[in-house]
Amino acid sequence: MATDQIRDVFIAGLRNAHAMEKQALSIMKPQVKRIETYPEVAAKLEQHIAETERQIVRLEDVLTGLNEDHSTLKDFALSFTGAMAALGHTVADDEILKNSFANYAFENFEIAAYRSLQTIAEAGGYGAAVSAIEANLSEEKAMARWLEDNLVGVTTRFLSLREVGETAKV
């Protein structure tokens, strides 16, 4: 593939990743505001929100280094759909479980996106961008691992709360 074609694919991927991270924020921020009975989940979401904000900065730095900018339209569109997805779970009796499933799926989507970006960066000789992409990838893997490792605990707590008649939603 020609160098400019790789560059075009890389820029599109970086813009998509930027919008994806904006979407992640629009999903996590409403969730964390609603959590009351799962403090460990709230704390982890708060931590990952801070990581996500740093990931956005990293992506912006890579784009700036390539004399490019993020796509405001993509950012808006994905943020909107993320907010709607988060809102959709608020009516579920098992909101915390639905959020856990969706967050786990989304983290794995992000992992795939960053692995692809890493491959494109290496193919295009964008070595300066690789460390930023790897940092984001590492944080997404850690969050996905945490969600997987804690799914049984969250589910068990949900069942326990529900059994005693306490609110088990969030």
From TrEMBL:
Keywords for this protein? Coiled coil
Which residue spans adopt a coiled-coil conformation according to this UniProt entry?
42-69
The name on file for this protein is: Ferritin-like domain-containing protein
One of this protein's Pfam families, by short name? DUF892
Please give the start and end residues of each transmembrane region. none
InterPro entries assigned to the protein according to its UniProt record, in alphabetical order: DUF892_YciF-like, Ferritin-like, Ferritin-like_SF, YciF
**Species of provenance:** Shinella curvata
Specify the signal sequence span. Answer: none
